[in-house]
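Page 37, continued from 36.
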């Protein structure tokens, strides 16, 4: 599993919660780093912040989904942007879920489990 967020506190929170559930977690602080890790170890899922400097989460998702070698990797957006147009944009880019910050760690874990089981999980409006 790959966690991508420019906020180290969020990275650590996600890593601790996910590792407690038995997931192997790698972290990236920006989009370029994330793409390198996605290509090198092909995670089973990517938890991806939308708003990051330089290469934002939307572009990272676009590149993951646009590469045949990584297109099948599920992407879950994590964002403080919760308007319908933001969520819809995530769906159009091929994300499997869109979680708004602040998030409940239990809800996040349930969403990860559902996505890994092949479900698409978007908040209802």
């Amino acid at each position: 599993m790959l966690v991508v967020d420019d906020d180290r506190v969020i990275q650590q929170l996600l890593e601790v919660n996910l590792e407690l559930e038995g997931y192997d977690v790698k972290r990236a602080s920006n989009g370029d780093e994330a793409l390198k890790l996605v290509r090198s170890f092909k995670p089973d899922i990517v938890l991806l912040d939308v708003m990051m400097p330089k290469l934002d989460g939307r572009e990272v998702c676009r590149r993951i989904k646009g590469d045949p070698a990584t297109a099948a990797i599920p992407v879950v957006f994590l964002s403080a942007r919760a308007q319908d147009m933001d969520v819809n944009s995530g769906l159009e880019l091929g994300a499997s879920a869109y979680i708004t910050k602040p998030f409940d760690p239990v809800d996040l874990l349930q969403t990860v489990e559902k996505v890994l089981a092949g479900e698409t999980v978007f908040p209802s409006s």
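Strands lie at 2-4, 26-28, 46-49, 75-79, 97-100. Flag for discussion at group meeting. DSSP finds five helices and five strands in the chain.
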